[in-house]
Design goal:
Blueprint lengths: L1 H16 L11 E5 L16 E2 L8 E6 L8 E2 L1 E4 L4 E3 L5 E2 L6 E6 L6 E10 L6 E2 L4 E3 L6 E3 L11 H4 L2 E2 L2 H7 L10 E4 L7 E5 L1 E2 L1 H6 L4 E2 L2 E7 L12 E3 L1 E2 L4 E11 L4 E2 L14 E8 L21 E6 L6 E10 L8 H5 L3 E8 L9 E2 L3 E11 L3
Parallel strand pairs: 3-9
Antiparallel strand pairs: 1-2, 1-5, 4-7, 6-8, 8-9, 10-28, 11-12, 13-18, 14-15, 15-28, 16-17, 18-19, 18-26, 20-26, 21-25, 21-28, 22-27, 23-24, 23-26
Length: 381
């Protein structure tokens, strides 16, 4: 009898010590994919059927397909933050023929939700001429983003529109209260005619000194910015390159540049005798490895990756307060596979930066690069 009493008492005590873990408050899509092999014919490559490592700031997911006409109902599968649910149901087939479908993700605790728009678009190449006239504030109103219209004049393709990215989203972490005009990459009304883009190397203040990231160079590049790595591996935040189906031969444009007064190293110590320089370069690279896995270049390998087949760099960009033309030619002897090129097997990266060594947090605060009237010339058949 006494044994039973102690057993019951022990059970009560143990139960009282166990607390329910709090339910997850996150409600994000981490990954999205189409896995039906019969549907693979609608995509260029198997990797086009999957969108991985979705940045936390993403609100729209776009799959690229061969043709939108007669697109069948598509079952989209999602990887969500733990405990979250999604509506329409995960893996259910949805009709995208009339436009995008809105999904709502609800957190495990039921108190939070996010909406995402999912759509399918044919690949539509953007124009090869960039005037940087089309820009707006980001969805949170903090910084500027740029978009481009496609060659056909359509303005509804996510891939064709928001092809430009910058490190502005990362700068927001260091200076959350800065006005949009004080970010490293902003529009400027004093272009050759109309607007241009102005890139300025900024101080990241006390936050930057603490994390040994004392400056943020103004940059603009073809690709996307992935904030997931902003605090851990900043060079991985820049996902360089978008798909092109033509072989580039030359890039030209106009620039102005004025270096900042004091060049500093990664510890924000003055590096006597060093003068800041801008950087403009472009690479064409194979976007899949030998096993068919996707390849994306980042800040740490965009000029050194073995998958690069063509490279162009502006050799000399002297300081000037007047608009000067720059021109750079692609070099490389690796044969271009015409079939692979036609089937979206290559990415083109084009990068502008106000501090050449800004990726290692060396440069001069105040260095300013203006860019306008950029054109990519392609090989003709």
């Amino acid at each position: 009898m006494r044994y039973s009493y102690y057993l019951v008492l022990l059970t009560v005590l143990l139960t009282s010590c166990i607390k329910d873990e709090p339910q997850n408050m996150e409600c994000d899509i981490l990954e999205a994919w189409v896995e039906d092999e019969d549907l693979a014919q609608h995509f260029y490559q198997a990797t086009d059927m999957r969108i991985s490592d979705v940045p936390s700031s993403t609100e729209m997911l776009t799959f690229t397909i061969r043709q939108r006409k007669a697109l069948p109902a598509m079952p989209i599968h999602f990887k969500l933050t733990p405990g979250a649910t999604i509506s329409p149901a995960n893996g259910s087939a949805q009709d995208f023929s009339n436009g995008p479908v809105t999904y709502t993700v609800t957190s495990e605790d039921g108190q939070w939700h996010r909406t995402y728009t999912v759509d399918f678009h044919e690949m539509v190449l953007p124009s090869n001429k960039y005037d940087f006239e089309d820009f707006e504030l980001s969805s949170n109103g903090k910084y500027y983003v740029w978009h481009e219209k496609s060659q056909a004049g359509a303005d509804d393709s996510q891939e064709a529109r928001y092809i430009w990215a910058s490190g502005n989203e990362g700068f927001m972490i260091a200076s959350p209260n800065a006005p949009a005009t004080d970010y490293p990459t902003v529009p400027d009304e004093h272009g050759l005619d109309g607007y241009c883009v102005r890139l300025t190397t900024r101080s990241t203040g006390s936050w930057g000194k603490t994390f040994k990231k004392p400056i943020a160079a103004g940059n603009l590049f073809l690709g996307t910015f992935n904030s997931k790595f902003a605090l851990t591996n900043t060079l991985k935040t820049t996902e360089m390159g978008i798909t092109y189906t033509k072989e580039p031969v030359k890039v030209s444009g106009y620039y102005k540049y004025r270096p900042g007064d004091v060049f500093t190293d990664k510890d924000f110590h003055e590096a006597a005798g060093r003068i800041d320089e801008p950087s403009i370069y472009s690479v064409l690279y194979v976007n899949h490895d030998e096993e068919g896995n996707p390849v994306m270049l980042h800040g740490d390998d965009v000029l050194s990756s073995p998958y690069i087949v063509r490279k162009a760099q502006a050799a000399s960009l002297p300081a000037t307060d007047e608009w000067q033309q720059f021109e750079m030619t692609f070099e490389g002897t690796t044969p271009i596979d015409a079939t692979l090129l036609a089937n979206r097997g290559y990415n083109l990266a084009l990068v502008f930066s106000s501090s050449k060594t800004g990726d290692t947090f060396e440069g001069a605060v105040g260095s300013t690069l203006y860019i306008d009237k950029v054109e990519i010339m392609f090989k003709t058949e």
